Input
Amino acid sequence: MATTQTLPPAKSPSSRPCPNCAETLASSLCASCGWEPGLVPVALTQTADGPVTTFAAEKRHRFMLAFGVLSCLFGPMILIGGISSGGGSIAAGIIFGPLIFVAGVMTLKNTRGGKAWWGLSAKERGLAMPGLIAGGFLGLCIIPILLLCVAMMKMSTDAWRG
Output
């Protein structure tokens, strides 16, 4: 007795429309207009061959770059701090330190070092968000600490003068 097995339909490669010309993108570079993530259309020129789009590089997002770098810096600091303080913070340092570091690396990788946001796929934006959130939160936590340090130094120099 022979058994038949039905195979699932073959999946087509994941694609999305080009934000500039609406053609299907099989890779990150559009074959019809030349758009890729990190480029913004600035001019459309009509030629005999058809419309030609001129692209300019997307302006660097400094906060994206800063938040990604902060996540990469704070990840190892949290790991080392958790391990060195002992107790229950060892587990927190071992878990959260590498996660924050990886989130920062994924943010820098997917945003191309803070150079691209416009035109990124939803998946790329989703992978970049944890690093942006962690870096932004930890970056904002630094501000009160720095203000407190500056105030303490100011008070100590005032007390020294008499």
